[in-house]
Amino acid sequence: MTHLQAGLSPETLEKAKVELKENPDTLHQDIQEVRDMIITRPDIGFLRTDDAFILRFLRARKFNHFEAFRLLAQYFEYRQQNLDMFKNLKATDPGIKQALKDGFPGVLSNLDRYGRKILVLFAANWDQSRYTFVDILRAILLSLEAMIEDPELQVNGFVLIIDWSNFTFKQASKLTPSMLRLAIEGLQDSFPARFGGIHFVNQPWYIHALYTVIRPFLKDKTRKRIFMHGNNLNSLHQLIVPEILPSELGGMLPPYDMGTWARTLLDHAYDEETDYCPESYTLSVKDLEKDLSPKTMKRSQSVVEPGVLKRPEKVKSEEENTQPLLSLD
Q1: Where in the sequence does UniProt note compositional bias of the Basic and acidic residues kind (predicted)?
Q2: What is the DSSP string of 247-268?
Q3: The CATH number, out of the four listed (1.20.1300.10, 1.10.8.20, 1.10.10.60, 3.20.20.150), of the domain defined by the range 3-81
Q4: The domain over range 90-270 is classified in CATH as 3.40.525.10
Q5: What is the pLDDT of residue 298?
Q6: Using CA atoms in the order 151, 195, 222, 207, what is the torsion angle rounded to 10 degrees?
Q7: Which is more confidently placed, 311 or 177?
């Protein structure tokens, strides 16, 4: 076991070996293989390239070097393309703070049977007069950044439960294709987290309509991990035992305190180490060469195999994608 695996329990070490193909004997070589690819994308400012940081991308892609680098590139490219989202990405930011206080996200104290952290969203809590959908997305991304520091969660991953109880048609009508696409790109395509399940409960018909719209943007793997439970909480409990769920989800614990996770972040004053400003992305390839292996320096003009690093498609048009998905007319 290397120092990079020091935070893992024996059970999680074995899981990383079996499920993720993590090998302590080749760990540093695996990391360097990913780092060596950075020179092929001089258009992206890779603001972190340390071993521990790259390792979380390898774990998220089961140690497939090309896929891990693709995710790493998309992580920073997403931040470059959405600079305003990542300015002042702190728990004390007014919009983020209010979203956190309303339980976006909620984080349960107990892990599921597979060691995964459970995130809960009570959709009806969204107060659209005080903060935006983008603020909610920023709060979720900030929370994931804090939690993904835990190597156990890098291996075991997360589960998301969204309770749509009392989420109104009016609230849903504020969602646009561009908003939902932004969330999908940020969570599915550009973040090194393993999501073992996404559970919808108490969803009304118009949430099914929204899902139909976003479904083409979801990877097959993501689609297979989305469970529509409706009002049947028994089917949820077959996958996540009620002993660790709050009463709102038919669980045996007291009602969830929406401010719990907000207080955790605010008490620790958690924020991203780097403020993603334009100047941060002027990092040149030469600045990175000191981290590259001699083998890569000799082939610095080479290109990673075609198609591996394809960028996400742009949203088709502003007019098309700023219109509400559901009309009140």
Answers
A1: 308-319
A2: GGGT-SBPPP-TTHHHHHHHHT
A3: 1.10.8.20
A4: yes
A5: 40
A6: -150
A7: 177
Is residue 191 within 8 Å of 144, Cβ to Cβ? yes
* pLDDT, tens digit (0-9, with 9 covering 90-100), for 161-196: 999 999 999 999 988 888 999 999 999 999 999 999
At 2, is the pLDDT very low, low, confident or very high (cuts 50, 70, 90)? Answer: confident
pTM: 0.84
Q: In which residue ranges of the chain is CATH 3.40.525.10 found?
A: 90-270
- Report whether 315 contacts 181 (CB < 8 A): yes
Are the C-beta atoms of residues 56 and 192 closer than 8 Å to each other?
yes
DSSP string, 186-226: IIIIS----EEEEEEES--HHHHHHHHHHGGGS-HHHHHTE
Average pLDDT over residues 243-262: 96
**Alpha carbon separation from 22 to 28, 50, 118 (Å, rounded):** 11, 18, 24
In whole angstroms, what is the distance from residue 178 CA to residue 186 CA? 12
Residue 245 CA to residue 60 CA, distance in Å, equals 26
Kindly report the length of the chain: 329
CATH 1.10.8.20-classified regions of the chain: 3-81
